[in-house]
Task: inverse folding
């Protein structure tokens, strides 16, 4: 039987999924701050995520939309903005004249270099908080968990 005290307790916010989401939002916000006042200040957070996914794995627009849990139209709008800025281009899937795969351009590679420096700065902040050993442990645990969950699905 629940008591009045049970009903007024705040829910626990330390589940892994919630913590990962909170950290992801915080890291996205820091990356936005790093871009502020630079040539890449125009990048929307959704475009930054789209660019990151394109850079990490080759996939079609439909696959990108599914990965981001957005409509194909929203994915197309984001890709269009990235194309207009010269960061990506579209190529047809080999043997398929319907589906296209976004590819990073030379200008996009330069932007990746800038993003890598921002990520390095972000990781140095993590090291300041956690220390080298814990940061590397965290990296290892995240890789292990990601790989393990991919294999089990």
Result:
């Amino acid at each position: 039987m629940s008591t009045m005290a049970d009903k007024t307790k705040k829910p626990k916010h330390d589940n892994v999924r919630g913590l990962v989401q909170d950290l992801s939002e915080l890291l996205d916000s820091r990356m936005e701050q790093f871009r502020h006042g630079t040539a890449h200040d125009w990048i929307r957070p959704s475009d930054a995520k789209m660019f990151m996914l394109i850079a990490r794995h080759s996939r079609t627009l439909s696959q990108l939309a599914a990965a981001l849990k957005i409509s194909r139209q929203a994915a197309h709008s984001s890709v269009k903005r990235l194309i207009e800025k010269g960061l990506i281009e579209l190529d047809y899937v080999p043997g398929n004249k319907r589906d296209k795969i976004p590819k990073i351009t030379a200008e996009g590679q330069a932007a990746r270099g800038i993003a890598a420096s921002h990520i390095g700065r972000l990781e140095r902040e993590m090291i300041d908080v956690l220390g080298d050993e814990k940061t590397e442990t965290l990296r290892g645990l995240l890789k292990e968990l990601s790989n393990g969950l991919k294999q089990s699905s």
Summary: The first strand starts at residue 88 and ends at 92. The CA atoms of residues 50 and 78 lie 7 Å apart. The longest helix spans residues 106-130. The chain has a mean pLDDT of 90.
